Amino acid sequence: MGGLFSLWRQRVADNARRAVDAYQEELLEYRNLAAMPRVRSEMLDFAVFLRQRTVDLAADSAPFHVQDLDLMAAMGRQRGEKGLTLTAQRQVLLVHTRLTLREVYEAAGPNDIAATMHTLAWLAPAGLAAQGAYTRGWIEGQRRTLATAAQVRLLTVMLLAGDDSATDLARSLHMPVPDHVVATVVRVAGGSPGPDQAARDEFAGALLKTHWMPLSWPEPHEVVALIPSSPGGRQPAVERGLALARDVASMTGRPCAAGTAPGRVRAFGDAVALARQVSEVAPVRAVPRHAYTVTDVFAELGAARLAEVGQWLQVVAAQLDAGPDLVATLDAYYQHDMNRLDTAAALCIHPRTLDYRLTRVRDLTGLEAGSTRGVRVLSTAVARILAG
To answer: What's the first-to-final CA gap in the chain, in angstroms?
Structure first.
């Protein structure tokens, strides 16, 4: 194995300089850091150290020593304290992995097949250990500079990405990572720009006092939460999602809609994507009444994905606009399972007035509100109208 490792060792300094140049060229955050001579010098020293230890230990099939991992963690911590983002932290690990493999192949000669395979086998566990140490240090550095709400937001992003290091951050926050969740997306109505990230972190901090769970407010009009649940008992988690939506509506003073979907660890991102689709077709209300699931809005989801169906429902919606108050009447009617007396009471009108309005619906649309066909068409049309 001498040929590969001998040439690889000779090229350590050149490879280190090439690595630092690559970080500057490919990563904007590292470009800004390396613009400072002292920081660039530190980066170069660390790149030399890392490559020297990699060559020496790979040749002996030995793992990184504790002192090595501590130094890697210290560098990660330094980067975290300087505000290196999660995206940049992941990118630098990817670039380093790519460069390491390139360095091995460049040093390998025709007679180094066995040595190359040996090195690749060593790199997998050793590389994961090194990346884990660096990431743990980065998380610690982030914790020293980020407010609690920002740390929870970071945790949520890491969980959605299936990042194994999320457990370290969760542990430091005393927030267990569940195997099963009800992913909840609260959609905040309104077309204005909405609060900036600093304001959203402040709002999220207030929400966390009541709802201590992985929670993020990534966009002005969207709150994402991962509510712990059990596979056979999701209803309590759905109810917590409704309580969260009501608090968001109260906090922002805007109507909201909540969409939910069950999810398992390493697939939380898929659950959030589905919950987001549900929230986009669910009715927005000043005080949310329900945290919706796919079961609740499957017809609306189907209509949203078929342009022709959506256009047809718009025609029905336009007919209901002739009123008076037909959308609100049908909404209450279906909310109360088509019970005349309960619906009239909820609307504060006489049952005969309700009957008149339902007759008006039939005259305008040709559909009986209480018929099977009427329920299917009119309830979907009303939900689309209220979804905004």
So the answer is: 68
How far apart are alpha carbons 371 and 356 in whole angstroms? 16
d(CA 314, CA 298): 18
Q: How confident is the model at residue 1, as a pLDDT?
A: 47
Report how far residue 337's alpha carbon sits from residue 216's, in angstroms, rounded to the nearest whole number: 35
Cβ contact 335:285 at 8 Å: no
Please name the helix (run of DSSP H) or strand (run of DSSP E) that holds residue 216, with its range, or none: strand 215-219
The tokens for 208 are: 């966390």
Looking at residue 2, what is its pLDDT?
61
- At residue 341, the pLDDT reads 92
Q: Helices in the chain by DSSP H: which ranges?
A: 2-10, 12-26, 28-34, 37-60, 66-81, 86-107, 113-145, 148-160, 166-172, 197-210, 235-252, 268-281, 294-305, 307-320, 326-335, 340-347, 351-365, 372-387
**373: exposed, middle or buried (C-beta count within 10 Å: 0-12, 13-18, 19+)?**
exposed
- Structure-token match 């109507």, residue found: 255
Q: Both tokens of residue 348? A: 């504060």
Contacts of 119 (CB under 8 A, 6+ apart): 4, 58, 104
Neighbour-count burial of 115, counting CB atoms closer than 10 A to its CB (0-12 exposed, 13-18 middle, 19+ buried): buried
Report how far residue 275's alpha carbon sits from residue 88's, in angstroms, rounded to the nearest whole number. 28
Phi and psi, residue 245, nearest 5°: -60, -40
- On whether the pTM is more than 0.90, the answer is no
Provide the residue type at 316 as one letter.
V
pLDDT in tens, 114-137: 999 999 999 999 999 999 999 999
CA distance 74 to 92: 16
Running along the chain, 388 residues long, what does each successive block of 10 average in pLDDT?
Answer: 85 95 92 88 95 94 95 94 90 94 93 92 94 93 89 92 87 87 92 77 91 92 93 85 95 92 90 93 91 86 73 80 83 87 90 88 86 84 79
